[in-house]
Automatic annotation (TrEMBL):
Annotated ranges, domain Periplasmic binding protein: 4-257
InterPro entries registered for this protein in UniProt: Peripla_BP_I, SBP_2_dom
Gene3D superfamilies assigned to the protein according to its UniProt record, in alphabetical order: 3.40.50.2300
Location of this chain's protein in the cell: Cell envelope
Species of origin: freshwater metagenome
Signal peptide as annotated in the record: none
Protein name: Unannotated protein
Listed GO MF terms: carbohydrate binding
Cellular component, GO, one term: cell envelope
Family: Belongs to the bacterial solute-binding protein 2 family.
Main subcellular location: other
Keyword Ubl conjugation: no
Amino acid sequence: MGAESDPFFQAMKVGAQDEATKLGAELIWQGDPKEYSPATQIPVVDQVLAQKPDGLVLIPTDPDALQPSVTKAVDAGVIVANVDTRVTDLSKVLTFITGDNADGGAKAAEAIAGAIGYAEGGKYKVVVGLTSETATTNVARLEGFKAAVAAKFPGIEIVDVAYSQSKPEVANTNVNNWLTKYPDLNGIFAIDGTNGQGAAAALQAKGLTGKVALVGYDAYPDNVGLIKTGVFTALIAQDPATEARQAIDSLCTKLGGGDAAGIKAEVVIPNVVLDKNTTEADLKKYTYVA
């Protein structure tokens, strides 16, 4: 994966290790510590493949750039499970497991509309912070967000988008630039956890908590805590640990000669919306554990 230190990927690692231990498999977990880029991920994949693993769980930073890595793995007899973001051609992977990203984007639109008090005839400005133009999860969330806005909230204008490469400090700069450029900004959709971190810090520093609606993605522990203080209106929580567990289980089933007929080509895991009305028990349940 890219940006291994991201709490989403750390939670995924916990799930993968738990399942590998349960099934008696050895897990080698590698990724660039901070960078979210195919330029840094491809050498990591090459290093992993040089160790001649039986199976590979791949979380590609770019659908086209990592496609040759899948081909290289399969040609070497390595079974590949694709998790979270996808490669362009899934025909060579055993299974693709991801969250319902388009639905998550739509849920974010609903949350922002509610937070800004959307009313027919009103005009509202929102911005979207993303990690990458090519990460398929980001693309699907943005598409879902735009579709919901167009269908239900035509008074909302998406005035800008910006990219952070999974770096909170870049996201923070992006948000500060927006706050200067759009002093009448109504809302921010932080399309993943690192963008949420950067946006939250910017709003708090400017004293804009509750004045600019912030809806984020990913239940990082710190971000979940900021629901209670009103910095986040809502967070769209994924289930990274389950994604990883299912990938490891599918690989071990296939490698162990089990019933591969039960392995689905594509698995979509639902999201959960966390907000001020979510119980403490559910906040704890869906917070990512590293």
